[in-house]
Amino acid sequence: MLIKYWPKETKIPFMRYRYVGVVLSLIMMVGSIYLVMTRGLNLGVDFAGGSVIELRQTDTVTVSNVRSQIPGGLTVNSATDANG
Question: Where are the domains of the chain?
Answer without folding.
Answer: 16-40+51-69
